[in-house]
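Quick start: what a row looks like.
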Amino acid sequence: MRHCKDCEPAQEIHWMAYLSVVISWINDPYNDFMDIFFKRAVDRLSKKWTMPFFRGMIWLHLARWTDEPNQKDSLRTKVFWNEAIRRGITMREFHLGPIDNVFMAEYKGKTITFDGLPRPDSGNSDSMKWMDNKGIMKEKFLKEGLPVADGGRAWSGRGAKKIFSRVRKPVIAKPNLGSRSRHTTIHIETEDGVVKAFRKANKLSPIVIIEEELEGSLFRGTLVGNKLAGVVRRDPPQVTGDGASTVRQLWEKENTRPERAHGPIFHTIPFDKEAEIELARQKLTMESIPASGRIVTFSQKTSRGVGGSTTEVTDIVHPENRAMLEHLGAYLDDPLVGVDFIMKDIAVSWKDQPRSGIIECNSLPFIDLHEYVLFGRPNNVAAILWDYVMPESRTN
């Protein structure tokens, strides 16, 4: 597979991502039918036969168990697994060919199986079918009175231009389904720019979201049992001017930070063509001397893999922002949700920040973002999740 800069930090096979969206349109009516007529029976059977299936595959030597985290496991897996070990919960991961990320957890005679992250034994909420779909999510949240960016769904470059003409500039373009900001373009100011951005996002999805660009930082909130468990601010690779140092000097100094220099979670900030373009957008070069306090960014992405950073901010969340996020959790009625939103200041009410809003939700959130922060106090959201799923394992 050819390396794709627009997919960084996690590569995606374009045609497979596109095809999966198309197939979902075919499958959804069938799945809805099954939900209506057979959901309870299917849930009972699946719970009854999950463990016998696992044991059968192991007995046939077609599958295997692992009993501790390994190098291939994601940081998300490692944080909830390490918390399980601390509590005395027995964890095992099931591997069947390319299938992994399926787990069994046992504590004092109680056994649960789950995919990705532990959830209470109550089945999936109705919102699981649409919360990852940015277009549908936007429409539903707007009706619910939750803040979202103005925009719409485009099927063509012409449709993208039509949306562009009616919303405030600048705008952004992103695939209707997807994560980690793959094939997302921000700071779009022209019709030619929005058509180019549409084509980039269209490689992963037939539908592309075109919407106004909100103002501020990107935040990730995680809701457990409809309650806000944590919020981190996610910043792109950046430095702060001191009025005396060049961008190059600030960049070199930031890259000596031990957490970046030694990894493996946070990475050094690269200087490449993308960084050069981003500096030019800010009318800067590596030899410029930014004013004291000025933020200089090297990319539009916030991933740790491209030099982004995270800051724990849960303790300063404004009460009205907390209430808004928990309103969202109650509306989704799902026990575990990650929420990405943009605002200038998390300590100020969203009602006083007109270009703030929710940009997407995730039914399988990266809870490790709270545990591994570059700035601030780590927040053990994995413990909050286990308290909710297996309260009998709580340790105080």
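That is the whole record. The longest helix spans residues 14-59. Confidence is low (pLDDT under 50) at residues 33-45.
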